[in-house]
């Protein structure tokens, strides 16, 4: 199974700790899929600064295919992070060269040579999703915690597996939202609920899964780990409940250390 991740990357800078880690939604998912033994690539852009080289070196060390990562003049994206009571708090985001990222026709052909394309709301590729869908390749897309973002209407109709996050937990309002999203095209709509687990809707039934006991050092990357584990399960033909468990198990690994990976 070959997984293509595409879109945003950034360096997560923990300034109070004097540490920084490579990350970004699709980047994280690629690394976690490799950790699970899958073939994964990342397509994106970095700056010609030290952080850009750090990003490429780190991905190569994890054996992620970076053949379609471009380096252009400018700054690599940076997210500033603080740890408050064991949870991550984002304080600032510097977009850098990511604001110039656009897929080429060669990039699209490369992505469509995989079994699944994975991106997210900050990935700058929403206009290209119909082209990928037209080639018959399923798409997973993380809409994060942005249920009213205008990108949803532009992207949702091309998406096979739609992910959202909502730390408030399950509710009738959330389930109604999931139904509306599923009616717009996705095969599955899944919401991660932080320490309250996750919920999935397939158009007929809601599936719920809680959390697994584990030591929490840093929550950075936990949601992306869930996505990687869940998608691996689904693509291997596992049931929805089994795939949700695989996602939770993968999150537990990431929760046990500092940084996304």
Task: Identify the notable features of this structure and list them briefly.
8 helices; single chain; alpha/beta; 261 residues; nine-stranded mixed beta sheet
Question: Layout of helices and strands, plus pairs?
Answer:
Layout: E1 2-6, E2 10-14, E3 19-23, H1 25-35, E4 39-47, H2 50-61, E5 65-72, E6 78-84, E7 87-94, H3 105-111, E8 116-120, H4 129-134, E9 139-142, H5 151-155, E10 161-165, H6 172-183, E11 188-192, E12 198-201, E13 206-209, H7 222-235, H8 240-255
Parallel strand pairs: 1-4, 1-8, 2-6, 4-5, 8-9, 9-10, 10-11
Antiparallel strand pairs: 2-3, 6-7, 11-12, 12-13
Helix pairs in contact: 1-7, 7-8
Describe this structure in words.
The protein is an alpha/beta fold and 261 residues long. 32% of the residues lie in helices and 28% in strands. Strand 9, helix 5 and strand 10 (161-165) form a beta-alpha-beta unit. The mean pLDDT is 93.
Summarize the structure.
The protein contains eight helices and 13 strands.
Number of strands: 13
Cα shape: globular
Give the helix/strand class. Answer: alpha/beta
Along the chain, the helix and strand elements come as EEEHEHEEEHEHEHEHEEEHH
Figure out the total of helices.
Answer: 8
Low-confidence stretches: none
Residue share in helices?
Answer: 25-40%
């Amino acid at each position: 199974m070959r997984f293509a991740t595409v879109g945003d990357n950034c360096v997560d800078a923990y300034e109070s700790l004097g540490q920084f880690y490579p990350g970004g939604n699709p980047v994280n998912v690629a690394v976690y899929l490799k950790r699970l033994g899958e073939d994964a690539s990342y397509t994106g852009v970095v700056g010609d600064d030290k952080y850009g080289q750090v990003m490429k070196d780190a991905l190569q060390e994890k054996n992620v295919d970076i053949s379609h990562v471009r380096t252009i003049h400018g700054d690599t994206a940076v997210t500033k992070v603080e740890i408050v009571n064991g949870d991550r708090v984002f304080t600032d985001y510097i977009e850098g060269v990511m604001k110039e990222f656009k897929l080429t026709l060669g990039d699209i052909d490369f992505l469509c040579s995989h079994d699944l394309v994975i991106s997210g709301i900050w990935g700058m590729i929403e206009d290209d999703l119909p082209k990928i869908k037209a080639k018959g390749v399923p798409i997973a897309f993380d809409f994060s915690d942005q249920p009213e973002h205008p990108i949803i209407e532009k992207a949702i109709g091309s998406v096979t597996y739609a992910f959202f996050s909502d730390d408030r937990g399950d509710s009738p309002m959330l389930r109604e939202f999931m139904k509306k999203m599923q009616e717009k095209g996705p095969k599955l709509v899944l919401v991660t609920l932080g320490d309250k687990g996750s919920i999935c809707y397939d158009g007929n039934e809601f599936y719920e899964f809680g959390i697994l006991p584990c030591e929490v050092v840093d929550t950075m990357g936990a949601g992306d780990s869930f996505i990687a584990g869940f998608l691996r399960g689904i693509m291997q033909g596992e049931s929805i409940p089994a795939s949700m468990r695989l996602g939770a198990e993968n999150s537990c690994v990431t929760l046990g250390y500092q940084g996304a990976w």
